[in-house]
């Protein structure tokens, strides 16, 4: 049965057998003797004991008692004091089991392979830059300058600031901090032995002595002051940017961006919970980076502030979850537009006068729940849970094959599949009426109660006999005359123009620069038509795609979609 002794070493408790205890005590006494007359001897001894404790903890693992073999291992790693002395002789004697190993030790400063750590002793935020500098053999300020330049590129150019910050915090998460003396030595590729402890202590003492004699005498001090000021300013900017992101994310629930309120999503997704989820995820996208920016700014301003690693990881993970959530919901919602259907109706108009007046009439539906986009272009309105969709106020004029006027209405809608699209189409309600010599069209269609927006639309073709005229009200945005050979003429800035048959074709009878030559509307391919005049440029293909550009707006449409870009100071007539 061996006798054991309980000791405290480097802040840790160990149980040591008696032989190992005496061996360790002699080793520490020899170290003290070798340091006689050295400045800061107590700090060196403390570091040595700390390093010995680290080695013993690594060595013991699940063992409870330190034996002489463990002490021999510690001495072989740390080195004997006499290895680093020139003039002094020591009486230190080793046990026979380790005497052969001692003969193989040679004086010097062994090196090890460099390892990447964050340097906690030379840090502004996390010590990442100084750790990278040690590993790459660069000055820490050079690495900090590189990160600063990347950050500025993110602010003033197309490089993503968020990606730069994300890369930084990702490296902080996965690059460990140099906690122990061995870790700190591994950053420089040096062995964590007694000589290194002694050398570091002497350098620290020398640096402290010099700095005490030369405070404020060198350019480095000025540079440090300027650096601290710059870091403080950067911290303020990060806090301001972060708060703006946070308030922007929160504002999704209270105000509109580009006049698009939060309820906007309700009419694009099928389920109410999806609408709430996409709003939540949309808010998290700016809020989470904003929170990280605020924490980073506080870290710049107050270096002692610590960012909890779990909070950091959770924030980044949650941001990616929100991003993927929006993508998944977006793909799911897009499937709701995958299929399209249309229905065509032809109605004969009882017109007794020789001139038919056509106009769109705005229906007074009371106070709408909200509006979308700007004052002139509104995709839809909602009142009492009923969805009202705006109509493309374009009238297409064609020659009637008989002596009666006919109105062709094409209904269109989309859906996730054919059945869904047909249900959306069947829910469309559109009204018009003939009042004497007036054809009055609603400027909205109803898509039904509790409906989702699935590109519901109606388009009009008015077939006019040769013995009738058509007068278009200013409420109509565009007019098209399609000849029998499918050539098309475009008209915008409608203001009570009169259209009729001039003996050759249907034309605008009171428009300037109107031509009787049907070929004026043909292009060199005989497929598409183009009309260029002082009123603008108008282009249309046989497929029905059209582009109109005038002084007030750009109008682009195809069989399904319509895009209007307003840039003139004109007032809607709705």
Strand order of the largest sheet: 4-9-13-8-15-16
Give the integer mean of the pLDDT values. Answer: 74
The computed structural class is: alpha+beta
What is the domain tally? 3
Contiguous helical run count: 13
Largest sheet: 6 strands, mixed
Low-confidence stretches: 86-109, 211-217, 256-262, 366-377, 515-527, 569-574
Strand portion, in percent?
15-25%
Helix share, percent: 25-40%
Radius of gyration: 41 Å
The number of distinct β-strands equals: 23
Question: So what's the overall shape?
Answer: rod-shaped
Report, as a whole number of angstroms, the end-to-end distance: 103 Å
Description:
The chain is an alpha+beta fold. 39% of the residues lie in helices and 22% in strands. It has helices at residues 18-34, 41-60, 68-78, 96-104, 128-136, 140-156, 161-174, 181-188, 194-213, 219-250, 272-301, 309-334, 418-426; strands at residues 4-9, 12-17, 65-66, 339-349, 355-361, 380-383, 386-390, 394-399, 405-415, 432-435, 438-442, 444-449, 457-464, 469-472, 478-482, 488-492, 498-501, 506-508, 529-533, 536-540, 546-549, 553-557, 562-566. It has a six-stranded mixed β-sheet with strand order 4-9-13-8-15-16. A six-stranded mixed β-sheet has the order 10-11-5-14-17-18, with no helix packed on it. The chain has a five-stranded antiparallel β-sheet with strand order 19-20-21-22-23, with no helix packed on it. β19 (529-533) and β20 (536-540) form a beta hairpin. α1 (18-34) packs parallel to α3, α2 (41-60) crosses α3 and α5 packs across α6. It starts with a strand and ends in an 8-residue tail after the last strand. Residues 394-513 form the PspC-related ToastRack domain. This is Phage shock protein C, PspC. The chain crosses the membrane at residues 149-175, 231-257, 277-298, 310-332. Residues 204-337 form the PspC-related transmembrane region domain.
